[in-house]
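Posting this for the archive.
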Amino acid sequence: MRRIVTFTVAVFAAAALAADNLPAQARATIEKAVAYFTAKVATHGGCLWEFTRSDSDCPTHYSFKGNYGVESAIAFYERVKRDGRDKILAERERKPAAQERPARAKRLEPAVQKIIAALDAEGRWISGDRIECAVFCHNVETLAEFLELLR
């Protein structure tokens, strides 16, 4: 019984220590990921290309292939028309009040922990068998938002 209690206390202590150290882990994760990305991926224009005669795995950026966001653009236009430009800009520029920041940071903690855990030893977030720029951007933005909320 004593071993179980000791183990349980150790697990909770490690979890508490990790939670207290989450901002430092988030900073280190950003630094490692950015170092890998700038050294290994963002060379020669930032794109790694492979010739293929099929469009089954064709990139969706640079207008190779895609839906071009027409539906979302129309929905955004309708929202601006309905709510007004000033309201949309005010919502976009609104910073969380001081009392909102800790709660928002707390809500981001599970995502931050998942992002930190997903970074491999080389500093990559691997999606299937590739590195996706969208995943990199999303993860760095989430970590940066978390750190900004803790300021």
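Helices lie at 2-20, 22-41, 70-83, 85-93, 101-118, 133-149. The chain has one domain: 21-43+58-149.
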